[in-house]
Amino acid sequence: MQETRLDTARIRAARRVIDPIFLDTPLYRCEALEPALGCTVSIKLETANPVRSFKARGTEVVANLLADSGSRAAVCASAGNLGQALAWSGRGRGIDVTVVASRFATVTKLDRIRALGARLELVDGDHEMARERAAAIAQYDGIRLVEDSLDIETCEGAATIGLELMETAPAFDTVLIALGGGALATGVGHVVKTLAPEAEVICIQPLGAPAMTHSWRQRRVVTTDSTNTIADGVAGRYPIPAVLSDLLLVADDAVLVQESSIIAGMRLLLTHAGLVVEPSAALGIAAILEDPDRFAGRHVVTIVCGSNVDVDAYHRWVGAAPIHRS
Amino acid sequence: MQETRLDTARIRAARRVIDPIFLDTPLYRCEALEPALGCTVSIKLETANPVRSFKARGTEVVANLLADSGSRAAVCASAGNLGQALAWSGRGRGIDVTVVASRFATVTKLDRIRALGARLELVDGDHEMARERAAAIAQYDGIRLVEDSLDIETCEGAATIGLELMETAPAFDTVLIALGGGALATGVGHVVKTLAPEAEVICIQPLGAPAMTHSWRQRRVVTTDSTNTIADGVAGRYPIPAVLSDLLLVADDAVLVQESSIIAGMRLLLTHAGLVVEPSAALGIAAILEDPDRFAGRHVVTIVCGSNVDVDAYHRWVGAAPIHRS
């Protein structure tokens, strides 16, 4: 394998600065899902932690470096999960965190960012506009801009999931990874391809937000004018060239799935695994549903990467009426 | 403290025979729950494993002993979670497992018991009738009867949760434990009272299944004629004297909660923690909701002990319409 920006020794070192509350997450076979999917399915569960997504693995690495260098402030753009995670990691280290998000972002994600003490700024546009605004704030205020997937620490943090996958027996055949900016896919993909090159790394994106997948297929950055998906966590339009370069080295395939499959995946995870997940976290199951022959008889690990949903929207998706809010 | 039937050294030894997939479960503070509850809340999550409850900690210890002694069969009565767990633990060790359950038990639990390869026998009565029938099978077939809470291995397995709680910092003030047969309460309670006697151990039972709580309060076995609760996992009528004796030594209080509070607890865990739980697993949150002043400002750990629910029933409880089943 050609060299990605990632380094396995640095990823092992990252584990030592991440709060253990985010590490060694559950990894277990979920047989109840298997009749519907036709393959052996293991779940790597990244939702049972204070921010309900894997993102804090990366922000812990970032915030640790910031604290070591005496930095007292940082800003990021976020669809919601990175913002929560950076707010959490910053708060514990006395770092003032500003999060820029789209005003169309998931409401509970925005509420949690505020509750964790971060300053939240909303832009009247999508995630790419939030990225521009965050960069402007960083320049104006002279503070660190945390750029998901571009900043190697975010990839290294996500890559620690890969190390945990490698520790398990029996080995799996395929890992299914939600593809957004690419930190999770390149991080986990790097570790898998380094330590178990025979395992297949498949990235999944919604048809409604296909920029990185198109880029991977064409081996050059392809942007889109808009996104249209409920999977808010992966809805970018401007792939980052350095991240694409890494993805080209570690991904065996990049797959696009329909919204209806994402919803069916969320429903299966609820019904047969008892898991509430956000749409991005159901992309792997959606990929199996769309192409069961491809996975038949294989042992597939899917990373359930987040559970931050608005409950009413969740019930709409899985087919139930709104509930009374407590 | 007077001596319970439990022994901390044996509990530490139990950890070594339990499949690691059931150990070191997530323990994390869930700040999003706190505004509604008025105290610091940490969750010990026992649902992210192949049987979606804590019960396999105990059945792993039981099945390990059975395998070591050359036993090839076992029978238990179960409301559903013990049966799944024993089926799982037995299957991996070549032990034929028979589970006796009420025909009114949660359907998904019964389905999972069958799917895990156990022989399932249903009785036309409640859990106490299932216990009688399981004992009769054991005697007739000359095989091991696994009795939840009476068999010390089931308590030792559950008690390993207590060891994990003790490893964490910062320390908690109170642990809230669902009370049914008593294995979880006496196991965890023993460890907490041995290693952190200043921490408060509070057991919670539904008003509709109060036998063990009444027994604890009157310091003698009190039975009831019936049960009436959605919390199927804790709905016993005949407390076991030896378990009550242990409970009297380790519990600081035993509390009864209303069904409406259990449902409100399930709804809070869904809305603010993204967790689907079975009713028994919401008993701790229900107790806080019923008496917030008691817990105000304290750090409370609640053990989320299981997530095996029928999804349609779950939606009825939390207030949403039935979903389309996949």
From TrEMBL, chains A, B:
Keywords of the record, alphabetical order, are: Lyase, Pyridoxal phosphate
Q: Which cofactor does it need?
A: pyridoxal 5'-phosphate
The regions listed as transmembrane in this protein's record are none
Name the domain of life. Answer: Bacteria
Give residue ranges for domain Tryptophan synthase beta chain-like PALP. Answer: 23-306
Name the PANTHER family for this protein. Answer: THREONINE DEHYDRATASE, THREONINE DEHYDRATASE, MITOCHONDRIAL-RELATED
The protein depicted here goes by the name Threonine/serine dehydratase
